[in-house]
Amino acid sequence: MKVRCLGEGIGAEITGVDVTTIDDDAFNKIYQAWLDYNVVAVRGQDICIEEFLTYSRRFGRLAAHPSKNTRHPDHPEITMLGVNKFGADGKLDNKIYRRGASGFHTDGNFEEEPFKATQLYAVAIPSRGGDTSRTSGRRATS
Fold first, then answer.
1. Which end of the chain has fewer CB atoms within 10 angstroms, the N or the C?
2. Domain span at residue 22?
3. Could you report the per-residue pLDDT of 91-117, keeping only the tens digit for each?
4. Kind of pairing, strands 40-42 and 2-5?
5. Domain membership flag for residue 120
6. pTM for the structure as a whole
């Protein structure tokens, strides 16, 4: 496994690991990278929903996503980003698409117990757009 810093104080890329077969030592390295860099991208994964949930639970308790209209029908802990963004004609509905990118937010900050983390798994990656930006309050105050 290789951990490579992607920026100044935030972001790391992890390669050379299969999250479906890692032992506790390998997971602890991923977890430590997350603590050190706030955001980690574990590259090269091809996992099913159950494997994604099993891996995600290693970080802690999972919560049902608050957005009921995009929750996975069988797995409420998963929200499916991109759902409902296309009309019946197959064209992107820019009004809905842009709403998701209209302003900064923090996942779960409104909950009594804020979310510890958010996991993302890309099923399809657009050739342009679709960015998810991140920032670090810890980095901003140091």
1. C
2. 1-46
3. 766 665 555 555 666 666 777 777 778
4. unpaired
5. yes
6. 0.77
Distance CA 49, CA 74 (A): 10
* Same domain, yes or no: 54 and 124: yes
In angstroms, the CA 11 to CA 115 distance is 19
Dihedral of the alpha carbons of 84, 100, 67, 50, in degrees to the nearest 10:
80
Name residue, tokens 């996942």: 107
Can you tell me the distance from the alpha carbon of 87 to that of 138, in angstroms, rounded to the nearest whole number? 40
Count of structural domains within the chain:
2
Phi, psi of 49 (to 5 degrees): -60, -45
d(CA 124, CA 102): 21
Q: Which tokens sit at 132? A: 């998810």
* Residue bearing tokens 């608050």: 66
Residues 59 and 122 both lie in one domain: yes
What is the identity of the amino acid at 47? I
